[in-house]
Amino acid sequence: MKELLRSTDPTTIAFATALLQGEGIACFEMDVNMSVLEGSIGILPRRLMVRTEELQQAERVMLDNDIALGRVL
Hints:
The protein has helices at residues 10-22, 32-37, 55-64, and strands at residues 2-7, 27-30, 46-50. It is an alpha+beta fold. It has a single domain (2-64), classed as Alpha-Beta Plaits (2-Layer Sandwich), CATH 3.30.70.790. The chain has a three-stranded antiparallel sheet with strand order 1-3-2. The protein is globular and about 35 Å long. It comes from Shimia sagamensis. This is Signal transducing protein. Pfam families: DUF2007. InterPro entries: DUF2007, N-reg_PII-like_a/b.
């Protein structure tokens, strides 16, 4: 799996997940438990992972919907 997106904003992760699922791209959210442990102050980013072979398609979906990649949002 490869990291597609890293964000401290749970709405961005939820929106990206919905977009990917709508395109039939499987994704997995990592670091959810770590962000819960830190006490909901939002300093630890969550990561959205996709299969390596679906990474380019997933990146295109994110860019088409104005979701920035490659940095913490």
